[in-house]
Write the structure tokens for this entry.
Amino acid sequence: DVLTQESAIIRSPELLHQWSRVLRFQKGESVILLDDTGFEYGADISEIGLKEILCKILWKNQCQAELSVRIVLAQSLVKNPEKFEWILQKGTELGIVEFIPLVTDRTEQRFLRKRERLEKILKESAEQSGRSRIPVLHDLVKFDEIFGKYDFVLIAHPAAEMKFSDFKKT
């Protein structure tokens, strides 16, 4: 796909199928395009072909859908891979910008399955929720390697005396 200040050319087979067959977009319809750098573009579809869709860019704005804070979720792999996919989907919808899959002492799953599928879930969840950036999926990390890399780390524990609501924005 190609995006300039004046036009966009969509060549992705997945998007071509979605736009022409699923959403049934027609010439002249308006769309909003996201570039994964924080910008959104208003555009009109000027041509729909079998191998590409052409759009005329009408405006460009900084997307307001992203949170003002960067939230990174370090999540232990779970036994059921579908649950980890659900965590990625819902986390993306909530505004998480990076996911770090963890292996802990009690983790039963020791490898990240179907990375391509997981990244597709992140992309589609970001599109669905109107986000201008697709979250980053890091490689698998051991639990003790996470410390020292971030300014602030919260660890959820069922017996903790503090709640998340006890924390104030500084």
